[in-house]
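Justification of computing resources. Each target in the renewal requires a structure prediction run like the one illustrated here; the chain below, 337 residues long, is used simply to show the kind of job we budget for.
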Amino acid sequence: MAAARGSKTKIPQLDWTQAQPAPVVLVSGPEDFLADRAIQSVRAALLEASPELEIHDVDAASYTAGELFTIASPSLFAEPRLIRVTAVEKCSDAFLEDAKRYATEPAEDTTLVLRHAGGNRGKALLDLVRSGAGGAIEVVCPEMKKDQDRLAFLQAEFRRLGAQATPGAVRMLAAAYSGGIGEVAGAVNQLVSDVGNRITEDEVTRATEGRVETNAFRVADAATAGRAAEALVLLRQALSTGTDPIPLLAAINMKVRGMARVYGATGPSGKLAGELGMAPWQVDRARKEVTAWREEDLARCIDLGAETEWLLKGGSRAPEYALEKYLLFVARRGRSR
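Resulting structure tokens:
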């Protein structure tokens, strides 16, 4: 969404949690779940102010000329309106022309929400809206790729539901649902509904039992803690149930790289977290785990991790053996014996 933050943008750009009504609300970015939340927030605010709110939905892809102005024209009782437009990134030529006209002079007591998921289609309209025409605001919904962003989202979800989860429980949940955040948000809601407002690792383990990513982090935790026998048993159990070696390796590598980031680092966990791209609890845990390591052993472990990845991706006829070898190397803290 770099373009949305360029020098031509003259309207307020808000996080999805700050979504609010305006004559024109541009909801941009690829993360549909966050966009839906933002649009729901706008709707809720308008309904709270005016329970008689009229709500209209428009598909920009199948739009016909004049439709927008018909919906926005004053009614007999002058009820406020919310016009929600989807698929602006696939809009018809007719919508593009009408929306550009409308955006310069929005109708009174009307909120127009434009949902644009990305791409070049509709760029002329987006540029016009971002130039400041019509008193617009933009709600940016970027894709959540970084672990830190997903963890922060999960923590916010628990707070929204009036619940508390231990850092380990949040991490396990994020690992168990590495796909869309809508899925993990649903898991949080179900977990709080089933368990209550205090969530620990045990509850998450029971709720996510059998998921590949959860098993992967159990293997990684045992290995970096130096529990070689336990790590090997967990690894073989995971592989025997059909778990792909790649996510298992990725979990171990993530832990090893975390230890490498904090090795020799000084200062408060909160400050280091921002510098290293980690959550404070991740910094604390990695610091605790790395105390038993020597720098040269950690470096060798990182090298072996890269070699193991190559072996798992076609460089070996025995990838499971390569993964076992690497796992034991980590569990022995980078030492041969």
